[in-house]
Amino acid sequence: MFVVTSVLILFIFALVMLAEGLFFDKFYRMSRVSGLESAMNRFSEQYPQAATDERQLARLLGSFMNEHDTSIAILNKSFDRANINPYFVDMQSSGKTIHIPIPNEGMPVDILPREIAMGDGLIVDGIYMDEKDTVLHPIAFRNLATDAPLEDGLVRVEGNVTDFMLPEQRSFNPLYQDALVAEALREWTDANTADWREGSPVQHKWEWKDPWSGVQYAVLVSLLAGDGEQEHYLFVMASLQPVGEAVAILKQYVIYLAPVILVLVLALSLLYSRIVSRPLVTLSRSAARLAKLDFNEQPEIRSKDEFGDLSRSMRTLSRNLDTALRELQHANEQLQEDMREKERSEQLRKELVANISHELKTPLGIVKGFAEGLQDGVAEEKKERYLSLIVTETDRMNALIMDMLELSKFEVKAIKLQRKPFSLPALLQEAANSFMQQLENKQLQIAMDQDGEEELEVFADRRRIEQVALNLLSNAIRHATEGSVIRIQIKRSEADAIWVGVENEGSPIADDELSRIWEQFYRTERARDRKSGGTGLGLAIVKHILELHGSQYGAANIDTGVQFYFTLQPYRGENIDE
Q: How far is CA 274 from CA 182, 187, 263, 336, in A?
């Protein structure tokens, strides 16, 4: 960008300089001539009104000459110059108005009065040109404080300026240029009067060169107005010296200015390229990070131009992409989790089918064997025993089916808790009393330990918590060592919850199996001995009930055996909407 910008600016600069050297002179001449033609057309429109008043015509000529820095003459039909002095000063002196025309020849331009205004006092030395002493040919203009002596043969007039027209915004010596009109007019008439007398040209323009100074002038002649003897022409002469000098000086100026311009171009190009390229580099790096999915904080361009808008848009895009990617990643993780859960569910389904087949096959086989024995009349003396075994196995299958139906309700979240306050120690005592026969058969005892004397009330579904207590006590009794003690502990935990623990003395559970005992049909007995009792679904039902209550639960090996525990929300006397 720096190289391209530098070369482009230098190329444009060189092109401009070349165009100035080759075409500026011609362009200036064309513009100058074209401007004079337009001004002459406007003069021609104003001339008929001013032609009848010599003073108005002089003012019109002086205004034209000052405005366009030209020398001008009015020509008659014979191409003779009308004697009109466009520059003058009128003074009021001794009760009369004195007209002072400014001659084109013999008058140094440096003696003309400068920056005068209406009413200013002025002293003029000169010669009266009429018998009434109203027209004064000036020799010198002096200010009021002059002490210069009056020359012989001259008169000194002092008065106040009432009207004036003096050279303004003219070249360095306008009176000299005005004096050249006569010489230029003579050469033009010698070369062109024949064509003009035949009436063919309406306007003529050519260039004339002052033989003494070598300055080039543009000369334009056009018809003013009138027919026959009243026919007049406008002769205009304008110097072309300024453009020639300007082009020559410009060429020298470029030679000296070129090194400075070169340094400035290089410095400005470097600055410009850095200003433009810095945000582009920043945006490019940001885009590269986005392409690599790097959505860290993007640098911000704080300008209020298009770069700033693009930077803010990219920052917004980065945040949106980061959010979308995180959501997509989370959805992907959730999908993978769902897929793992689906695979696990499928595995559980297969295990469930296998377990159900296993659990139902044995009792069905037993029932079928005893039924066939009864049907064949084998061992009539054992009929009652066979019937009792058939009923027992049928009850076992019925319990298994009921537990499976209960578990399926929990898995599809079709269970709605009916919470209400109740005494937890009382519920646990009732549950323990329902196992009196099993306790006696194994010579077991139940010991309940409660912290404090207060009544520990919980806010939960009483029937479901009773089901939890029955399953845990049944499990503890089934695995307890004969003649041991089953302990039930109730206390308040540090998390402001009611903590319940059920301990039994017996063999510990392997550490790798502690997390699996809550699965369906999972038994710690490797041989899946049916004599231990149970359907293998009790702890799975306990897990679902406690999770619905938002409880913490688990199992751990202790010194004497195994402890199962869970927590419940205490009742605080508040109405809780489910």
A: 64, 64, 17, 50
Domain membership of residue 395 (yes or no) is no
Tokens 């709605």 belong to residue? 416
The CATH number of whichever domain residue 236 belongs to comes to 3.30.450.20
Task: Give me the number of domains the chain comprises.
Answer: 3
Report phi then psi at 322, rounded to 5: -60, -45
In 21-120, DSSP assigns E strands to 70-75, 88-93, 96-101
Structure tokens at 429: 């005592």
- Report, in angstroms and rounded to the nearest whole number, the Rg of the chain calculated over CA atoms: 63
CATH number for the domain spanning 496: value is 3.30.565.10
C-alpha of 518 from chain center: 58
CA end-to-end span of the chain, whole Å?
Answer: 71
What DSSP character marks residue 22? I
According to DSSP, residue 23 is labeled I
Q: Which helix (H) or strand (E) holds 110?
A: none
Regarding whether 195 and 57 lie in a shared domain, the answer is yes
Distance CA 293, CA 318 (A): 9
Among residues 166, 200, 233, which one ends one of the domains? Answer: 166
- Residue 139 belongs to what domain range? 88-166
244-301 pLDDT per residue, tens:
566 666 666 667 767 777 777 778 777 777 777 777 777 777 777 777 676 666 666 6
Which amino acid makes up residue 116?
Answer: I
The confidence band for 529, taking pLDDT boundaries of 50, 70 and 90, is very low
pTM comes to 0.43
Contact by Cβ (8 Å): 570, 456: yes
Task: Tell whether 190 and 110 lie within a shared domain.
Answer: no
Structure confidence at residue 434 (pLDDT)? 86
CA dist., res. 429 & res. 377, Å (int):
48
Q: Is the pLDDT of residue 500 over 90?
A: yes
Q: Is residue 380 part of a domain?
A: no
The pLDDT tens digits of the residues spanning 153-195 come to 899 999 999 988 888 877 656 777 777 888 888 888 877 665 6
